[in-house]
Amino acid sequence: MASPFAGPSSPRKLTGSTPGILDSTQRDRLLTFSKSTLSFASFNPRTATSSQLTPDARKLSLNEELYNPKRVVIETSPTGESFWRFVPKARIDEGVVDEGDWPRVIDICGMLYECSQDQWDIYKLDPLYECRVRAPPASSTIIRVSPKSPESPQSNGKRTSSKAGIPPLNPRKKLHTGSGNSSLDLGYDDDEVEEVEDMIVDQTMPPPPRARSASLRRKREEISQIRQQRRENISRRAEKLSSREDEFNFNFSTEDSPGRSQSVPVDNGGKRKATLLVDPLRAADLEVEEDLFRTTFTYKQTAQRKRTRKTSPGAAKRELDIQRAKRERRRRDRQQAKVIGRRQQWHEQFMQEVYAEVPDLKSPSNDIPAQNIGDGEYDDDSGSEDENWNGGPSTDTSFDDDAARVAAIAESRRKLAELEADRPLWEEEARKRALRQRVEEESQRLKAEERKWADMKRAEVEARQAEMHRKAQETAERTEEQDATLREEAIKRQRERRQREQRWAYGHWTPIRALERYRVLSEAFDTTKFNVYDPLTFHVIPWPILNPPAKMSVEDVDWNAVELFFESVRPHMRSQDFKSFVEKSQRRFHPDRWRSRGLLRTVADEAERSCLEVAATTVAQALTPLWRDITGR
């Protein structure tokens, strides 16, 4: 509301969200009910949403400005019900970005008032007033416009609202008052309202029906005809199917009832094809009826490409695992039998070599009587008695042969006994030979692996050296290209500097020209990366002094010259611009800034480097009191 304590020299204040402070008829144009109240808020899609959650992308628009929420007006009826809509935008002049900050002084019908944002929004809602934001330094204005003649309800196709009851709400349509179509010039379109269509919850009445166009009616009639024709086709096909039900004969007396599996074709080695037959005992499914009889009565097998699977993939895998285990077992048995066979063969060969050393014995002659040989000895007395008794001749030759045979047998038995006694020895020797053989094989394998490892290491070293050589070559080429680029850029900047120096070399020198030169050089100085090809020089630095460039030297840069420069240019700048100007200058000549940029390292001459450092420090020290005075630090 207006402040009663405003003096005659100060503008009157308009605050609050009550309409009709200056125009008593404004309440009748804005309020649906006489006792309704208005309130204002800012629409933001992220309202009542945690900052850790990402907003739903479906409820955001591409033209949404989250940093500048839209204003909405909320009308609360006496019964407590609330209605809202967007506040229309004001008219703005060319070059104006937004409506500005509030409160501020505006011109309302020729009078100046200090207006709040709520009162400004009330006048934007009023169709009898036009709100315009003008470019500075002009003030924003609110002027009264002539009302437009309302159109008849038949022409616009919308029902007018009445104050006797609650008006119908529609999220796609704006609220209407007694002013007719005054909302057509509000400055926003239906796209902004459609953004929050899904967010409206409290709807007291359904939206009014829309007028159907002739094209829409024709389209719906065509759809109805197509649906009716489809239903007739389905009915005819159902009649055909019902007439064929008698053709199906079922034999329920068989012991092995196949059920529905009879409709599956016999496995013939080809690809499986599903055969769909209609079950006459089951009622037609209305949901799948259309798709079932869309093309044909049944689907028959047309090709033989794939065999029917008789076992599950798991059973096949288990069978493969069993077969693999059997093969492994047979392989181990074969290896074990081979080892046992080689061992038996070696033993037989050894025994053959032993028996080869035993002499071949002849069988005894028939004229020699049988002897009792038990332990390798014979009885001479019994033999002589037998010979004397039989009366046979006894010669020395036969006696020698028997003795030789007995001696040979005894020798053979002795050798076999020695061999059996020495068997652990030669078995130990055999194990030692096998161990030596395994050691030799392992040694050869290790040597082969060492050679292979050495070859791999040598290849890795060669590859690493080649990679290092390649990288060094690339680095050298890249460095050369960078140096060439730096030289070209340095030549280009030097050419531009000469052109700028020629610009400032002629004409009358004034503080305005000194300020302009300082700004141009400061922009180039802040963005230039000085290096050995483009070193820092005295004339490149934007010294804040009033001396002309032709007569400027390092001795001219002192405390008084810097203060005189800023005192001379201050009247030509606004206070806020001058504050920003001083802050940037103070940061530009700060010693830490110079060290971080490495400006003095590019100067080869030691004396010149010292002079530049002293001059920059002097400028920074002279700017510090001025900077503190302006910023209040």
TrEMBL record:
Organism: Lentinula lateritia
UniProt-annotated stretches for the region Disordered: 1-23, 142-187, 199-271, 301-344, 358-399
Superkingdom of source: Eukaryota
Keyword Coiled coil: yes
Skewed-composition ranges (Acidic residues): 376-388
Composition skew (Polar residues), residue ranges: 142-163, 250-265
Keywords: Coiled coil
Coiled coil stretches, renumbered: 409-489
Identification of the protein by name: Uncharacterized protein
Biased composition (Basic and acidic residues): 219-247, 316-325
UniProt keyword annotation of Coiled coil present: yes
